[in-house]
Design a protein that fits this description.
The chain is α+β, with helices and mostly antiparallel strands. 55% of the residues lie in helices and 13% in strands. Strand 1 and strand 2 form a beta hairpin.
Amino acid sequence: MTAITLLAELHGFQRFTTPRALMVYLGLVPSEHSSGEAQHRGSITKAGNLHARRLLIEAAWHYRHPPAIGKALRQRRQGQPARVLAVADRAQQRLHRRSVA
């Protein structure tokens, strides 16, 4: 659901020439206060599409905890091919490792 909503909010990813351009559009880059040689980076700018930024931030927060299979997820996984479950488990582990790094 998050991916579909994000795609609808952005009207397609092809309009962004670089990943940095997408991050700037979403307001996920640090603010900067510079004077001469001194550079001070602050919090994220929060400019751009609020809904898309919120979706990404909430999705990132979900990966801060170690992956676990609860009751609801265990029920959804029943009957799925082992190959599909292995891919899903590797993706969960990878996303968690990236979020805590």
